Amino acid sequence: MGLAASQGRYLCLTARMSDLINEGQQISYSRLMLATESQEIAEKYNKAMANSVMEAQIYDENGNPKSVRLTYDAITNKDLTKGLGMRIVDADGHIVVPQNATQELKESLKNKDEDETFVYDESTDDAEYIQEMILTGQWFLEQNTGSEENAKWEKLQSWQGSSQVSERNYTEDDAAAEAEYEKDMKALQKKDKMLEMRLEQIQTEENAIETEIDSVKQVISDNIDNSFKTFA
Q1: In whole angstroms, how far apart are CA 184 and each of 32, 48, 69, 166, 179?
Q2: Residues 47, 39: contact at Cβ < 8 Å?
Q3: Based on the domain organization, do 159 and 193 belong to the same domain?
Q4: Final residue of a domain: which of 172, 200, 217?
Q5: What is the C-alpha to C-alpha distance for residues 95 and 41, in angstroms, rounded to an integer?
Q6: DSSP secondary structure code for residue 159 in this structure
Q7: Residue 172, SS3?
Q8: Which residues, 6 or more positions from 45, have their beta carbon under 8 angstroms from its beta carbon?
Q9: Are residues 19 and 100 in the same domain?
């Protein structure tokens, strides 16, 4: 192989080596992103397995106790077969009502002849939102210790102060969460395995090219030596 041909081959090999190094770096970055995604999937799964639900303890038509999801209606409805007859206030003592609250509802939640204010919230139809607001101490429950005609609302320092409100581990979605977790993790593991195999191929090719580069460099060196001897 002549000097020019050897030099051309050397340039091709170094260019290919540069491409392989770049591809290897991209694969390493992709695997790092898969590891991050795997962590997010695990966190989502753990959250689903540990999530809880707040419930109201009410009574059926026969007077037997039963549990229902703690919704706005379940909190405020005065019919004991449907709700607790309580009200919700925020940290400033404002009565929380839906955005479209009727005058009848607002009057039923006020102390008689007292100038109480309302705060309107468009998310009162979302049970998870209500639960979060109560658990984080942004909303409080108040119970009527007076009569329906002469209400006297008293704030519970904690929702746990009521025997009619409870929290339990929500297991109904555990099977679906586990199935989704296994599916997502298998997909990630498959992607990672393919990237790992490609990285091994790249490393093998890099070793082969490195050996050939050393060989071509030796040929170039020998050609240079021979050329100097010719013209010496």
Answers
A1: 16, 15, 30, 33, 9
A2: no
A3: no
A4: 172
A5: 39
A6: G
A7: coil
A8: 177, 178, 180, 181
A9: no
